[in-house]
Amino acid sequence: MADHNILGEKGEELARKFLIDNSYEILHSNWRYRKNEIDLITIKNNLLVVVEVKTRSNDYFENPKEAVTRKKQKFIINASEAYINEFDLNLEVRFDVIAVTIINDITKIEHVKDAFQPSLL
What residues have CB less than 8 Å from 107, skipping those under 6 apart? Predict the structure, then answer.
């Protein structure tokens, strides 16, 4: 497995633990719809929270949350709609980004709630 895949998996595991520690219930990890994937699908306070995790080993070029482009946001929204339809959910949805930066065994986690809105795309 490539180093970036290992880093990504580690970041997702850290994000999962962070969310559980903050009272989120994990419904699915790496849920796929066609070519689109949602990193984490959670629920908290009767709100469906769709989470994109971005992990980096440095912070020189861009903050991990800035890597969630408009195109990626559209993919996440489309996959979320498919998820809601497949599981027949009637919940409000929020889109979050968790940025995980791991530098020299020091981990920083930033949770950006309501990072983007479907109506703004």
Answer: 14, 100, 101
In the predicted structure, residue 121 carries a pLDDT above the cut 60:
no
Give the long-range contacts of residues 16-22, CB within 8 A, separation 24 or more: 16/40, 18/98, 18/109, 18/111, 19/51, 19/98, 22/111
Nearest to 98 by CA among 47, 44, 39: 39
| Model confidence pLDDT, tens digit, residues 57-84 | 876 666 656 778 999 999 999 999 999 9
CA atoms within a 13 Å half-sphere pointing along the CA-CB vector of 87: 14
Considering Cα of 115, then 10, then 107, then 20, what sign does the dihedral take? Answer: positive
> Is the whole model's pTM more than 0.85, yes or no?
yes
Domain spanning 3-120 has what CATH number? 3.40.1350.10
